[in-house]
Design brief:
five-stranded parallel sheet, alpha/beta, single chain, elongated
């Protein structure tokens, strides 16, 4: 099992009927997805064999075609759940790349997530929480999967930690004290995003941290509401996307840190 939170939920028998696996580590996501399918669907050798051969009638999988999932595919899910399980104790629907749900499809899926049959289970995957409808995220238990870039790590972690705490304390001096540190633009932007994801993970009760050594900071600021943290993450992604065309990349970093400080008042 790659995600410790998922492993604990399985051990406790508390795995949610709506789970969203998020991150860029596709290999780990697919491995854990397979474990979830076994958890809900395998009850004997026959169901184990059928699951392995992809012929189990109580499993329905949707993958985005041409980068989009349309409402017709959600209607097929509705039909799938109109009958009780035939071979297992549950019926499980997997939606891969949920970020590709079109608006009308996402809204239709939301209704299913709000009132699922007692035997119904949903598992969704996505590469980014920001690309999934917030109301869908709120109906699922979210598990994060990070992928570290080979050979890259945040330089001088204690300095980075001090910088982020200064931001959360609304200390404007951080914009001047961290000027030289901003030279590592790519790594610092990425690390800020992962730090924010860790904060969200802590709030949601998980322990799959990118920076586990910052746990004291997550506990100190663990009161920040998830909608605020998600907005910070979205801002980070937006600035990273647009900064390549920016004349002064250092201003991009200052804009991000200021937006976080200002957003803490919401």
């Amino acid at each position: 099992m790659n995600n410790s939170s998922l492993a604990r939920q399985m051990e406790e028998g508390s795995l949610s009927h709506g789970t969203l696996l998020i991150g860029e580590n596709e290999k780990e996501i697919l491995e854990d997805l397979e474990e979830i399918m076994k958890y809900f669907l395998v009850k004997d050798e026959n169901t184990a064999h059928k699951l392995k051969e992809d012929v189990l009638s109580d499993l329905y999988i949707i993958e985005s075609l041409k980068g989009q999932i349309k409402i017709d595919e959600i209607r097929e899910i509705q039909k799938f759940f109109t009958t009780s399980p035939l071979e297992s104790d549950y019926k499980l629907c997997v939606i891969k790349n949920a970020q590709d749900l079109r608006v009308e499809a996402a809204n239709a899926l939301l209704k299913l997530l709000e009132e699922p049959p007692e035997y119904g289970v949903f598992v969704l995957t996505a590469d980014s929480e920001q690309k999934v409808l917030p109301t869908i995220c709120s109906r699922c238990r979210i598990l994060h999967y990070y992928r570290r870039k080979e050979g890259k790590d945040i330089p001088e972690k204690e300095q980075f930690k001090k910088m982020m705490e200064s931001v959360l304390q609304r200390d404007l001096l951080v914009l001047f004290d961290s000027q030289e540190y901003f030279e590592e633009q790519d790594i610092v932007f990425e690390s800020i995003e992962y730090f924010l994801r860790d904060l969200l993970e802590h709030y949601l009760g998980g322990d799959q941290y990118y920076f586990p050594e910052f746990i004291d900071l997550y506990e100190k600021y663990g009161h920040l509401r998830p909608e605020i943290i998600r907005r910070f993450i979205q801002k980070t992604e937006e600035i990273q996307y647009h900064r390549k065309n920016h004349v002064n990349e250092r201003l991009c970093m200052e804009e991000l840190l200021l937006s976080i400080m200002e957003g803490l008042d919401d």
